[in-house]
Task: structure prediction
Amino acid sequence: DDLLDPRAIPPALHRCRPKDVQARSGANCIAGLLADHFDRLGVTSDPAITARVAQLNRHVRKLTSTIDRITELSALRAGKIDLSYELVDLQDVLEDVVRDQAGDAVRSGARLHVLRATPVQGWWDRARVKQIVASLVENAIRYGDGAEIELATELRGMDAELVVRDDGPGIPVEQCEFLFERFEHVARSKTGGFGVGLCVVKLLSEAMGGTVRHESGTGGARFCVTLPRG
Result:
């Protein structure tokens, strides 16, 4: 257990200098250092410790992902964002996100489901649209308490709508107006968070001429992103 004591790791992280972070993402830098650290200790043959290491790596990836989002948030608020438009099929984006998030969903007990609909296409930055959907799904997995999560697309005239809905505990009415503010963490469960993802969703949607809203209903949470199709 001492080998996994967080106090044994920070000295290695000091080798991750700013110039290294510029050349590699923060997640890759820290994850790489952790892998080197445990490989040198020769602990990877123990199944129990291997599982602990894997869990630690997941936490590191999530933490560094949040750090990257905060950095990106600053760039978005300053209007420093490059968009690369192409013809995008939203159904394909939803299915990509479901594949990527399948592991986290299983670990949380959540069930991801893409509703089939008429294909919806438009001219957007595919990577940014995928980032929007992924952030909403991550939010539903984190706060949905193992509920079913539905993803859907709808055609609204000249606009397209992305919908991510969960059957979780929902969001307190008094907190709904703060959902998309930076660093506003909404207490849907005991799970912590930094209140960054939804703000990034809002800014990315607006950067492509769209909007995002939360709809209150009989339970759970329902987020709708509307984007002009071109």
